Amino acid sequence: MTGMDNRFRELAQTVPIPRPWDLPTYLNAVAAHRGRTITLLPVDTAILAGTGCGTGSGLWIAKHDSDVIAYGADTTEWHAEHIIVHELGHMLLGHGAESSRTEKSPTQTYAAIAGLLPSISPESIAHVLGRSDYESTRERDAETFADLVMLQAMRPQRRESLLHKTFFRDRR
Predict the structure, then answer these.
(1) Is residue 149 a part of any domain in this protein?
(2) 117 burial class (0-12, 13-18, 19+ CB within 10 angstroms)?
(3) Which of 20, 72, 137, 164 satisfies CB 3.0 to 4.6 Å to 45 for a cystine?
(4) Within a domain: residue 95?
């Protein structure tokens, strides 16, 4: 079993994946686990281009006492949920502050996002846009996490067999 498989199992026990799947329930469970509110912000995908994770379809902004997940508003519900769970994966996997690159993103991008998210400080926006490891192991792990959560959410629930109920139940 790979390290990510083990980590996913641990996280699925710590923050259970709701069955049947319900994103608001999972989002609330992650927020409670982290002790921080999480706000979802659907935005024009063009604003996210060149920022956030990989293709720029999602962005996690860690504020001092809460988190914001911005995602493309013009995508399918399933894809939006996958993007959101990817960003939750970053949170649960402990992908926090990263070293900023020396070359800053264009000021006009900062301004566009600052206009869209006026409650977020320019320093937070600069920190997020200054991240440079979007193609790293962290990105692969967050993507794998999102894939595993969505697969787990879609799996039919297993019913206990008569054999299991009879012979393997807790006999305390």
Answers:
(1) yes
(2) buried
(3) 72
(4) yes
Q: In the chain, what's the furthest Cα-to-Cα distance? A: 66
Quick one: pLDDT at residue 78? 92
The pLDDT, as a whole number, for residue 100 is 34
If you search the block for the tokens 């054999």, which residue do you land on?
163
Under-70 pLDDT residues of the chain: 1-2, 49-56, 97-135, 157-172
C-beta contacts of 33-37 below 8 A and 24+ residues apart: 33/92, 34/67, 34/91, 36/65, 36/66, 36/67, 37/65, 37/66, 37/67
Residue partners of 156: CB distance under 8 A and separation at least 6: none
| Residue 172 belongs to some domain of the structure | no
Q: Angle at CA 151, nearest 5°, toward 148 and 154?
A: 150
